[in-house]
Every structure is written in structure tokens, then in C-alpha cells.
Amino acid sequence: MLPEKGDLTLIQINLRLVELRHSGAMLPSAAGMTEGAKQGPPMFSLRLALVLAALAAAWLAPRPGLAGTPRLFGTSEVQHENVERVFAQWRNMLARMRATPEPFEDACEARPPGPCHLKAWNAFLHRLEDKPPVVQLREVNDFLNSFPYIEDIVNWGVSEYWETPLEFLHKSGDCEDYVIAKYMSLRFLGWPVESLRIVVLDDLNLRIAHAVLAVYQGEDILILDNQIRSLVYARSIRHYRPVYSLNEHHWWSHRGG
User: Fold this and answer.
1) Residue 111 has pLDDT above 50, yes or no
2) pLDDT digits (tens, 9 = 90+) for 20-70
3) Burial classification of residue 218, based on how many CB atoms lie within 10 Å of its CB (0-12 exposed, 13-18 middle, 19 or more buried)
4) Each residue's pLDDT tens digit, 212-252
5) Which of 53, 92, 119, 251 is the right S-S partner for 83, CB 3.0 to 4.6 Å?
6) Among positive and negative, which fits the CA dihedral 74, 185, 64, 50?
């Protein structure tokens, strides 16, 4: 039975709330809706967020995953369209990145004597162009994991902000910022969109939201993670439960695992 129009609207709203929960954004409280009142609502519980994600996944343009695609952390997945419309942080990051030369031009973003992070990053990537794929993955992972972890509230004064790679090179960042920089580094090196996904997940050990880069190679999935120094196969990790994953073309909702 298909949902009524009002039901579909509610599901879309719920999906937006799930995105806010996993982005770390604050939702307005009832008090915050009144004139002059402060905004400062509680976060959605993990259980409620997962329930809402499952409801949204059931109706929002679902397409079953391609046959033969490896199961990410043992989950089943549904493919969806309109990734930039659904995920505002991803859309805004891409817009800022498209407005700058990063990382596809050998340019300096600063006036002398300022540091040329973009030029150094460009040179680093060019050195990897003829290297085997596993070397590219390892070098990109090691290079970007060398940056210190800094929360968005410290860098930007907000609870959630998805950085462009250049912003990350200037200020460091948190988990999704490492992932975006790794994703765009591999895209620069010619890796196809279809092989790469940014994965937003729950770390069941630490009981926090986290993000990693998943790289699909045949029947295997390699994970690039700022919490793990080396490359690891997704099948070897038991404490990650993906909620959604995305790239420039699609996004996927996940369940099970």
C-alpha cells in the first residue's frame, strides 16, 4: 500500500530529522519556538533516529542495491536519488568546493608569505598518479590521518560543518572532514564515483556517530578511517553499524548488520 501524500511528507520530515541527529545539529525546542526564547533542544535518541531512517528508506525513491555489490558491514541497503537535495551539508560543501580551484589546479590559495596548502596537496597527489591503487589508498589515508582531530565547535563555532578539503588542510577537522578530504583526493587520482562512499554510522563500542570512507574493489570493501591507522577490510570490523552512505551520484540507507 502506497503512502498518502501527508504520510510521505511526514516521512521526508523524519528523514531530515535523522540527518540532523547524525550531523550533530540541534533541533528547536518548544520553548525555542516562542518569541525571545532561546533555542536549545534535546538530541534525538539513537533508537528513534534509526526507526525514522528505516521508515524514510521504505518510501523515498528506493532502488535495491545492485546484485553482487558487497554488503557494507553486513547490512542490506536501498539506493536513493537526489543526494544533494536531501543532505544539505554535502550540498553546501560541494558548492563551496566548486567555487574554488581545489584540488584540481596547481595554485596557491594564499598571498605570500602565507602557506600554499593547495599547491602542496596538489604536488602530493601528482606524486601518486602512477602508483598502484593500494599504494594510493595507503598514502592518502596516512597523509590525511596525520592531521589533528578538531571538533567543529572549535573550528567553526557550530555543532556540525562539513569542510572542503582546503578548509581541512587549513584548520584540520573531525571525522567527516577526514573522509571528504580522502574522497576528493581519490577522485583527483581518477577513482570513479561508483567505487567511493562516505559512510555515516554508529560506533557501537564508543556509542557515538562516526564517518569513514568505503572503497569498493570487486567483492571487497576497504575502509579508510581516522580512528584506524592502516587500511582494513569492512568485513573485519564488527562494531560499526552504517545508517546512510553517499557519493556524488546517490545515497543509500542501510539496515540490519
Assistant:
1) yes
2) 444 444 433 333 333 333 333 344 444 444 445 544 544 444 455 554 578
3) exposed
4) 999 999 999 999 999 999 999 999 999 999 999 999 999 99
5) 251
6) positive
How far apart CA 145 and CA 246 sit, in angstroms, is 21
Helices 88-98 and 5-23 pack at an angle, to 10 degrees, of 70
Residues 6+ away with beta carbon under 8 Å from 6: none
Looking at the DSSP bridge assignments, the partners of residue 205 are none
42 CB burial (10 A radius; 0-12, 13-18, 19+): exposed
Q: How far is CA 88 from CA 19, 25, 78, 84, 161, in A?
A: 9, 12, 20, 7, 10
Q: What is the mean pLDDT of residues 84-89?
A: 96
Show the domains of the chain with their CATH numbers.
1-60 (no CATH), 74-256 (3.10.620.30)
Q: CA-CA distances (angstroms) from residue 186 to 95, 119, 135, 179, 203?
A: 19, 17, 11, 11, 25
Task: Give the pTM.
Answer: 0.75
